[in-house]
Design goal:
It is built from 4 helices and 8 strands, in the order βββαβαβααβββ. By secondary structure, the chain is an alpha/beta fold.
């Protein structure tokens, strides 16, 4: 597996303080005006070392400071990357359950929910169990707006995961709400 890079103490790409940002390698969208075109090539970037999960956990807790995890790209949820992202999110939530995981994707929430209903077990599990915030939608150069928090264009939306217990069934379900940036 390949990745584009890791930013240890990121105060730009995240919410609520400091994040570790993990940049995936490879993107099928190739949005005109993309901020990270160097991440498009699936053969670019760096080889992921065998110890990457241990290293990521160490980075998230370095110097006794709890950080959030931001996942960007490239495209984290394309078929070539979704298994890796699932593995990272699963381990982070098992080891550090209070870590918020924020993910940027060119797919819309509607597309992700449709994929979760088909034969795509990684997407369904990510939506149900691991992701806390999703910024969805492809970057659109003609809708660029520098005033937006966490987004580059006005078509992109911020979604917050709301977990709740169903009172009769006693099992976890999930729900995503589209929020305004001041409510992050």
């Amino acid at each position: 597996m390949r990745f584009a890079g890791i930013t240890d103490n990121d105060i730009v790409d995240g919410i609520d303080g400091i994040s570790v940002s993990f940049w995936t390698q490879g993107c099928p969208f190739h949005c005109p005006g993309c901020h990270n075109p160097e991440t498009w090539d699936f053969n670019g970037g760096k080889e992921l070392p065998d110890y990457y999960l241990d290293s990521l956990i160490e980075k998230l807790t370095a110097n006794g400071i709890q950080r959030n995890l931001s996942i960007l790209g490239g495209e984290p949820l394309c078929p070539e990357n979704e298994g890796l992202i699932y593995s990272i999110c699963r381990v982070v939530k098992q080891e550090l359950p209070n870590t918020k995981i924020i993910l940027w994707t060119g797919y819309t929430m509607e597309q992700l929910k449709n994929r979760s209903k088909t034969n795509d077990p990684f997407i369904g599990s990510l939506l149900r169990n691991y992701l806390d915030v999703i910024i969805d939608g492809p970057y659109k150069k003609d809708l660029r707006d520098l005033r937006l928090k966490l987004r580059g264009s006005s078509n992109q939306r911020i979604w917050k995961h709301v977990k709740y217990k169903l009172p009769v069934l006693h099992k976890n379900d999930y729900h995503w709400i589209n929020i305004k940036e001041e409510n992050i």
